[in-house]
Design goal:
The structure is a single chain. With 261 residues, this protein is of the alpha/beta class. The chain is 44% helix and 15% strand. It folds into two domains: 152 residues, 3-Layer(aba) Sandwich (Rossmann fold), CATH 3.40.50.720; 87 residues, ProC C-terminal domain-like (ProC C-terminal domain-like fold, Orthogonal Bundle), CATH 1.10.3730.
Length: 261
């Protein structure tokens, strides 16, 4: 348990709220050291001992570390002074330098969790800008381990790229699952069965990857020269991996371009 006071601007939204609940459940900080802002100044989390404030600056003033969990387009109107504080940004497309300039923060941590925070299965990369103390880095790592796994990256550009990879959360699996189901229906499979089969592939069968090396599994299936090998070969010949690469670069380009322009 850490003794720092942790404030979450946007702590009643889906992302900030999921993190707040995980922090409470894992007892990362004493319950009285968790502060969230809400315009009404009331929220069910207060029943668990969380401090609620109606003003964002009040939250900043009483916090050692401030998490900004608002939509990127709302950051420009977020008028806070975080002088001497560490700010953790969960916003895509806004640089650490821009955050430091607007908030006067001593240090900024950019982090990119995804929707899987809801089930504590997010992978969250994070990057430090400015003078981030070792103890705060440990806090950041433990914070995001409350909602899954986490790793520090040494270049801010990596956060922008990973915004399009891990930051998209279930988007790519959802696209694959939809495509598999749709193509099965095109082949005449009844919709209910097609959807069950596709869900099994994406949600259930993929759990084998938790304990198996992905490339070794692909190599073994291709070597078997069966039905799966034929399907994989067709996808490879269709430049599947290159298409994924283009998708990631397109997403990363948006993040690098920034959302404050």
């Amino acid at each position: 348990m850490f003794n720092e006071t942790l404030g979450i601007i946007g702590g009643t939204g889906w992302l900030g709220g999921a993190i707040a609940k995980a922090v409470l459940a894992k007892a990362l900080v004493p319950v009285g050291n968790l502060v969230i802002s809400n315009r009404s100044g009331s929220h069910p989390l207060s029943q668990h001992g969380v401090r609620l404030v109606a003003d964002n600056q009040d939250l900043v003033d009483c916090s050692d570390v401030v998490i900004i969990a608002v939509r990127p387009e709302h950051f420009a109107s977020l008028n806070i002074n975080a002088t001497g504080k560490t700010v953790i940004s969960l916003m895509a497309g806004i640089t650490a330098q821009a955050i430091a300039a607007q908030t006067s923060a001593l240090a900024v941590v950019r982090a990119m969790p995804n929707a899987a925070v809801e089930i504590e299965q997010s992978f969250t990369p994070w990057y430090c800008f400015g003078e981030v103390e070792g103890a705060i880095k440990i806090l950041v790592q433990r914070l995001f381990e409350c909602v899954g796994s986490s790793a520090e990256v040494q270049q801010e550009d990596f956060i922008d790229y990973l915004s399009a990879l891990s930051g998209t959360g279930p988007a790519f699996p959802a696209l694959l699952m939809t495509a598999l189901a749709n193509q099965a229906m095109v082949a005449g499979i009844p919709a209910e069965i097609a959807q069950l089969a596709a869900k099994n592939v994406v949600v259930n069968s993929s759990q084998l990857l938790a304990s198996h090396d992905a490339q070794q599994m692909i190599d073994a299936l291709v070597a078997y020269r069966g039905v799966t090998a034929a399907a994989l070969q067709t996808m490879t010949q269709g430049h599947f991996e290159e298409q994924i690469g283009r998708a990631l670069l397109a997403g990363a380009a948006v993040a690098r371009r920034g959302l404050m322009a």
